[in-house]
Write a structure and sequence with these properties.
The chain has 473 residues and is an alpha+beta fold. The protein folds into four domains: 3-156, Beta Polymerase, domain 2; 157-242, Hydrophobic Seed Protein (Orthogonal Bundle); 275-401, no CATH class; 407-472. The protein has 23 helices and 14 strands. It has an eight-stranded mixed β-sheet. The chain is elongated.
């Protein structure tokens, strides 16, 4: 067992004192005072060793059983009691307290078939995934127990499995994805044997639930080093399991100013996009339809006509498969479908209004953010798009005039149309859509009297003849 006290070299000039919130200290003291041992493990300790100031992800490992822990605290939730975990609620913290354990058998490549409580922290640390997560902080002595050189690996910025990496990934298929996700969040590299083992464990990974994969993927997309993570996903083979539709993007060469093939362009668009998950998903998938739409023009230059339509259809299938919420899927697919707009200064105000109506006022900023990231990933560096700024200014001027951009903004509604003698059904919606087109062309028409008159004029087109009432004869 290695006891490591002097970790100043890793602290980036922070003084070597683990700032433990009083609520966490209370839990540790309660367990220790009851005759048991308790250690801080997991993310907070890793963050402390990395020199992070704000450590909040506190987990505790103890030789006390879940029953023992539940007797010590007034507010405890048995969140994972069959795996030895309960959650102690204190102040703003929800702290997972887990009994020292070992695990056996992983027939589903995800969860142990059985667990056994053990007596020492050393045995408990031996079951953990990566060396940087296999450390424990002893509050009573102020020492870090580090049997697998986690601190050295953190200093070298390396993600390394505890023990045999093939065995670790066979135990839990999600660990391979977690390794790559940590690389994306921390900017670390994978130790070679660990990286090789990921490629060897794709069968185990394939059996992990789509929801768990999605959650890890989204953490990766939002990582500070998302580009590193995406490149590792491809290199290890994980990307081919999660989104096989992306693989044809590798080697799909583009035209003109593009400095990357489609795959690297998509990766770099993610890296250039804001840290908002819907925009990052759209960035990753916005050009996924290019390989399927590639054609060579007469001049030998490749074209990708309507690739945004194919990309949006593919994205919809991928995101449904990964169990994203429908609202998120709808927004991401809409951004992909709308990203190929071509603004010029000779657009009329009516054209600007139609653009706003098609995109949706609430989606303008996400679309502009996607377009800016896309532009940056074409040339490989930040670009100032005067064209985009010009359109933004035009839109602001139009929005200040409070025009109608959707059916809900019209001065009449479906009930008004029905009162004119139009039967309930799809024709009502078609008439309202035509009225919106009229108003986008000429906003002055958006008043009740004008719209009712125009609607009456459109009704014969749909086979509806309005019979005059007695009052009108």
């Amino acid at each position: 067992m290695k006891y490591s006290i002097g970790i100043l070299s890793l602290m980036h000039n922070h003084h070597n004192h683990f700032q433990i919130p009083k609520e966490i200290e209370f839990i540790l003291n309660q367990i220790n005072d009851s005759g048991h041992k308790a250690y801080i493990v997991g993310g907070a300790l890793r963050d402390f060793v990395m020199g992070e100031k704000d450590c909040s992800d506190f987990d505790i490992a103890t030789d006390a059983t879940p029953d023992d822990v539940m007797k010590l605290f007034p507010h405890v939730v048995p969140t994972g009691i069959k795996h030895g975990t309960v959650t102690v609620l204190t102040g703003k913290f929800k702290v997972e307290v887990t009994t020292f354990r070992t695990e056996k058998g992983y027939s589903d490549n995800r969860h142990p078939d059985s667990i056994s409580f053990v007596g020492t922290i050393e045995e408990d640390l031996s079951r953990r995934d990566f060396t940087m997560n296999a450390m424990a902080y002893d509050h009573t002595s102020g020492t870090i127990l580090d049997p697998y050189d986690g601190q050295k690996d953190i200093e070298r910025k390396i993600i390394r499995c505890v023990g045999n990496p093939d065995a670790r990934f066979a135990e839990d298929g999600l660990r391979s994805m977690r390794a790559v996700r940590f690389a994306a969040q921390l900017g670390f590299s994978l130790e070679p044997a660990t990286q090789t083992a990921i490629s060897n464990s794709l069968d185990a990974f394939s059996s992990v639930s789509k929801e768990r994969v999605r959650d890890e993927f989204e953490k990766l997309l939002l990582g500070k080093w998302a580009l590193v993570g995406l490149e590792l996903l491809e290199r290890t083979g994980l990307l081919g399991v999660i989104i096989p539709e992306m693989l044809p993007c590798r080697g799909c060469i583009q035209k003109g100013a593009h400095v990357y093939d489609v795959m690297d362009h998509c990766f770099h668009t993610v890296a250039a996009a804001p840290f908002l998950i819907d925009i990052r998903w759209a960035a990753l998938l916005h050009d996924i339809g290019k390989p399927a739409t590639k054609a060579l023009g007469a001049d030998g230059i490749p074209t990708f006509h309507n690739h945004e339509k194919v990309s949006s259809m593919l994205a919809s299938k991928i995101l449904e498969r990964l169990r994203l919420p429908n609202n998120d899927i709808n927004l991401i697919v809409h951004l992909i479908d709308a990203h190929m707009f071509h603004y010029t200064n000779d657009w009329s105000d009516a054209a600007v209004r139609r653009f706003i109506a098609r995109v949706g006022v609430e989606n303008l900023e996400p679309l502009f953010a996607l377009r800016a990231a896309d532009s940056e990933a074409i040339v490989g560096h930040k670009v100032q798009s005067d064209n985009l700024e010009s359109l933004r200014n035009r839109i602001e001027l139009v929005l200040q005039k409070e025009h109608a951009f959707g059916l809900k903004d019209l001065a009449i509604n479906g009930n008004d149309v029905i009162e004119l003698g139009v039967p309930k059904g799809p024709i009502v919606g078609k008439l309202l859509s035509e009225l919106l087109e009229t108003v986008l062309d000429d906003p002055a028409q958006n008043n009740r009297e004008s719209l009712l008159r125009i609607c009456q004029g459109l009704m014969p087109k749909y086979g509806i003849i309005k019979h005059k009432s007695q009052n009108e004869l």
